[in-house]
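Below is a filled-in request sheet from our internal design queue. Each sheet records the structural input a requester submitted and the sequence that came back. We keep these sheets so that new team members can see what a complete request looks like end to end.

REQUESTER: design group, bay 2
PRIORITY: normal
MODE: inverse folding
CHAIN LENGTH: 133
BACKBONE (tokenized):
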């Protein structure tokens, strides 16, 4: 992950490295409040600008579930400035409330007459592997 900023042609500031390291510590999507708690010192505007740049450059993607705080997760390598290319389902566990990006073998294809679908996002809720024991 250390070369991710360089590969995406983003200046490697200590603050950006620290924010990226926080995302790297999680295998699931996290809300901005967790990033804020883990930062030692930060300026809120700098944090929001960093998140915006990470979103625009395809480093992280945003997961919005109706009525909930936005969550963010690290993107796959093929995401870039032009588009995010995800073939996974956003799954929220009803028990632990963690949001996961779950990879699937075949992403469903949907065709709508007279519409051009450019991105498809699927959200699911239930019990995660840990809570479903």
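RETURNED SEQUENCE:
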């Amino acid at each position: 992950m250390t070369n991710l900023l360089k590969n995406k042609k983003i200046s490697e500031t200590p603050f950006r490295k620290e924010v990226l390291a926080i995302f790297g510590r999680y295998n699931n999507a996290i809300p901005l409040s967790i990033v804020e708690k883990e930062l030692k010192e930060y300026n809120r505007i700098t944090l929001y600008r960093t998140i915006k740049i990470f979103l625009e450059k395809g480093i992280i993607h945003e997961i919005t579930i109706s009525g909930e705080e936005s969550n963010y997760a690290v993107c796959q390598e093929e995401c870039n400035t032009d588009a995010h290319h995800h073939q996974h389902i956003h799954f929220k566990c009803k028990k632990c409330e963690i949001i996961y990006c779950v990879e699937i073998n075949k992403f469903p294809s949907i065709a709508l007459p007279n519409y051009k679908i450019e991105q498809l996002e699927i959200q699911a809720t239930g019990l995660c592997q840990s809570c479903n024991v």
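SHEET NOTES:
- The radius of gyration is 16 Å.
- The chain has four helices and six strands.
FILED BY: M.R.
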